[in-house]
Design brief:
Pfam families: TrkH. It is a multi-pass membrane protein. This protein has about 450 residues and is mainly α. It is built from 19 helices and 2 strands. The protein has a two-stranded antiparallel sheet with strand order 1-2. Helix 6 packs antiparallel against helix 7. The longest helix has 29 residues, at about 125-155. The N and C termini lie far apart (about 55 Å).
Length: about 450
Amino acid sequence: MFIFQKIRGLLHSTPTRLIAGYYFLFTVGFAILLWLPFSLQEGASLSFLDALFVSTSGLSNTGLSPISTVETFSLPGILILALNLQIGGLGLMMISTAIWLLAGHKISTRERALIMTDQNQINLSGVVKLVKSVLISFLVIELIFMLILGHYYYFAGYYPVYWIAMLQGFFTTVSAITNSGFDITGASLIPFQHDYFVQTLHMMLMFFGAMGFPVILDIQKYVHCKRTNQRFKFSIYTKLTMVTTLILWIVGIIGFYLFEYNHFLTDRGLIEGFYFATFNSLSTRNAGFATVDMNAFSPATLTMFCGLMFIGSSPNSSGGGIRTTTFAIMVLAILSFARGRQYVNIYGREIETQTVYKSFMIYIVATLIVCLSTLLICMSDSFSLMEIFFEVCSAFGTTGLSMGITGALTSFAKIVLIATMFIGRIGIITFLLIFRANAHPAKVRYPKADIIIG
C-alpha cells in the first residue's frame, strides 16, 4: 500500500508526470485488450510483448508492427486498435475533455493545466475552445472521407462486400488522419500504387493530421472572418509551421527525384514518378503509409527519409519527431549567427531566447536518443546499420515505415523501440520534465564565466 501511495504521489506531483503516467497506463491497458482471445483471429497467437509493441505503436501513432494486423486481429481487435489510434491522434486529455463536456462537467484549472500539458500549449486560455474546434473538425472530416473511401473501394471493385469496404474506409481514414500508418490491407497502400485518387485522399488526410491543432483553429478563424468580411491575420506560429511544412515537402520531392532519377524512377512515367515522389515525401514525415517496398530505394533516398522522419510533423499534431518549428528555429538561429545578428527575428518579431535554447536542446537530446537506440539494437541484432537506423528514426518520428525487419527483431530490440516510440509520442520536453519536480526560483546566482567553444 505504501508503494502505491508513493507512486500515486509521484505521478500527481506535476502535470507532466501525470500525463506520462496516463499514457503508460493506457498503453498497457490497450495491450491487454489486444492480447485477449476475443481480439484475435481463430488460430492466431500473439505474445504480450508483441501486443505491447502494437499498443505503443498505436497510441503513439507510429504504425510499426511485428505482426500482420489483418491476419492477427479479429473485427473486435481491429476496432480496439482503431480506438487506440484515435486516442493517440487526438490526445488523452482531448478525449477526456470531450467526455467531461458531454457530461456537463465544468473544466477546472487543474484539468485545464493537464490539457495544456498534453497539447503542448503555452497558456491556459483557450484550451477548451481548442478542444471543441479540433474534435468537431476531426470527426466531420473523418466521416466524410470514410464514406468517400468506403464507397469508392466498393464500387471500384477493391472490396466487393459492402461492409468490408466500409470497414476499410473507416480504418484507413482513422489511420491516415492520425498519421498512424496502420493498415488492414496486409500491404499498406501498395495495392493502390497506381490509384491516384486513393493516394490523393490519403495525402489530404495526412497533411491535415500533420498540420497541428492550433493551425486548424487558425484556418477555421480565417474562414469565419472571410464569410463575415472581417480582417484576420494568421499567427506567427501558423505561418512558420505552414511554410516549414511546405518547404520540407518540396525538398523531399526534389531529393527523391535527384536520388532516384537513375534508379527507381528510370522506367517510370511522369505522373507515376510525381506521385511516388510526392506521396513518399509527405508520408515519411509521420504518416508511415507506403506505396512501394522501402528496399526498392537507394541508400541516399533512405538516408533522406531518415532525416524527414527525425524532423517529423508540427507540434500539437498527431505526429512525432523533433517537430517542424523546432527545426525551423534552429535553422533561423544558425542563419542569424552567420549573419552576425544577436537575435532571431521572423515576420517582424523576435523569437524568445529561451525558445531558441529549447530548440537546440530538443535536437541534441533527440539525437542522443536515436543514436543510443541504434547502438543498443546493433548490439542485439545482426541487421545492417541502415536497416536499424531507419527503424529507429521511424520509431522516434512515430512514422511507421520499415525496411521489413520489425517482425524479426529480438525481444530486447522491441523493448528499445517501445521506449523510443513512447518518448516520440510524449515529446522530448515532456520526457525531460518527467525527471523534474515543480520548479522554484533560484536562491543563488553565481558570477558569469565564458568558455572557449567551437
